[in-house]
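hey so i finally got around to running the thing on that chain from the lab meeting. sorry it took forever, my laptop kept dying and i had to restart like 3 times. anyway pasting the input first so we r on the same page abt which one it is
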Amino acid sequence: MHILFVTATRIGDAVLSTGLLSHLVERFPGARLVIAAGPVAAPLFEAVPGLDELLVLRKRRWGLLGPRRRFARLGARLAGARRRAPGHGQGRSA
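ok and heres what got predicted. didnt touch it at all, straight out
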């Protein structure tokens, strides 16, 4: 099982999310755990048991589809994808 835990960029909100994270770690002890956090909150998660990867995401302004594309890339990375599919980002043909 893979778990992608996306937490808040603000430290107070990230602290509040640690209760849920602790529950997930206890409930799924063998899961591959990837945490995505903002640069200020990221150090809170460095010592989480079973952590495979900590992704530090910088907050930025998004276009209409920006967040969807970024989370799709995170999901692909979590799933172990190493490269993009042929034709990715070239639009659809008629």
